[in-house]
Amino acid sequence: MRILLSLMLLVCSSVAIAADYKAEYRMSVVVGSNLPWGEGATRFADLVRERSDGKINIKVYAASSLMAGKQTNEFLIMRQGVSDFALASTINWSSTIRELNLFNLPFLFPDYAAVDSVTQGEVGQMLADGIEKKGVTVLAWGENGFRELTNSVRPVSKPEDLKGLKIRVVGTPIFIDIMQAFEANPINMNWGEAKIAFQQGVVDGQENPVNSILIPIKIWDFHKNITFWRYVVDPLMLSVSNKTWEKFSPEDQALLRQAAIDATNWQKDVVRKGLIAPDLSAHEQLKAEGMTVTVLTAEQIEAFKALTKPVYDKWVPRIGEELVAKARAAIAVVPKAEVATEAAEVVEETEAAAEGEAAAQ
Ligand code: X2X
Question: 241: CA distance to ligand 1 center in Å?
Fold first, then answer.
């Protein structure tokens, strides 16, 4: 009798848990599922399905389809429960969560080690705590990447080269301020319309990460010039709405967290490949596609950075002085191993070696 009773209790409690679970969860992604960013989301959904033996099913809605193309509304749809999960760019949420503009401060992050030091440390935790208070839990940090500049008009190595160029940016206010500081002509546009705009020459240029976006969309079909300047970085947040999160059992929460870490680690490796000296194969690929690749030296970056003082004056107080100071401290402790200048030197060396070889033949 006792055994029967405990059996019945067991059945009832698992039914109760199952009843709280959805047959299918939604996951939002701004870009297409064929891009490494979209693939990161699919990988997370697959890992969760496998590891939960099919109990937790997540369907990925790519290409901003849950917010009718308006990418800056993504945080809103998470809060409203339209989407349960997202692999979201800090840029797209930074108009709602102003602290995330930390990553949009021009030339603050010199290298990937600096990005990791911030996202994986106290600052990342502070940002996640702030987001949690607004209704969303960050499970792990992924990456879109450092955003590099491309255009169809001329190579850009100094601010005067960028002057007057029409540059497509995301509809997040700080990007207008940054491009205006460079005297470029920024134009807000959702990602969904951007490729057509490049094709039709509605804009002269844009800024996006190389492996995550530019290579998959074959940017060389529209723009022949790329400037590596690492002017802002775009981490991704694998996140879940608090309302959905609270309904999972502690075991499933642990499973979801681990799957988020595994999927974003994979995704970060993919988007960083060939962009860190001495492996600059991504640069080589762009050259092979006929692009003029300009890698800014530290001095050239200084010339751009000097112009962004008004951006810092306006945005640091909005982001929070303390948060920015903590981020600066986390960046300062990182050994300067792979700064853009080093990349520039390696490219120059490779070119010199190639020229030497060609001359010898
Ligand atoms: O719109 C962009 O440029 C993109 C795809 O990188 C973001 O969603 C931030």
Answer: 21
Q: Which helix (H) or strand (E) holds 28?
A: strand 25-28
Q: Does some domain include residue 332?
A: yes
pTM: 0.90
Find out whether the beta carbon of 118 lies less than 6 Å from any atom of ligand 1.
no
User: Measured from the CA of 207, which atom of ligand 1 is nearest?
Assistant: 3
How many angstroms separate the CA atoms of 332 and 335, rounded?
8
**Mutation pick for ligand 1 pocket among 196, 198, 208 (CB with most ligand atoms within 8 Å):** 208
- Tokens 């080690």 correspond to 113
Q: Which atom of ligand 1 is nearest to the CA of 89?
A: 9
Q: Cα separation of 90 and 102, whole Å?
A: 9
**6 domain residue, yes or no:** no
Q: What are phi and psi of 322, to 5 degrees?
A: -65, -45
Is 170 near ligand 1, meaning CB less than 6 Å away? yes
With residue 143 as reference, give the H or E element that holds it: strand 136-151
* Alpha-helical regions (H) of the chain: 2-20, 36-51, 74-79, 90-93, 112-119, 122-133, 159-162, 173-181, 191-200, 242-246, 250-272, 281-288, 298-306, 309-319, 321-332, 340-360
**Domain annotation covers residue 67:** yes
Residues spanned by the domain of 256: 21-360
Q: What pLDDT score does 353 carry?
A: 45
Say how far residue 51 (Cα) sits from the centre of its chain: 26
- CA dist 216 and 144 (Å) reads 13
Backbone phi, then psi, for 297, in 5-degree steps?
-80, 170
| pLDDT value of residue 356 | 45
CATH code at position 246? 3.40.190.170
Tally of domains within the chain? 1
**10-residue averages of pLDDT along the chain (361 residues):** 51 55 98 97 98 98 97 96 97 97 98 97 98 98 98 98 98 97 98 96 98 98 98 98 98 98 98 96 98 98 98 98 98 73 45 43 37
**CA of residue 180 to ligand 1 center, whole Å:** 19
Is residue 155 domain-resident? yes
Atom of ligand 1 nearest to the CA of 209: 6
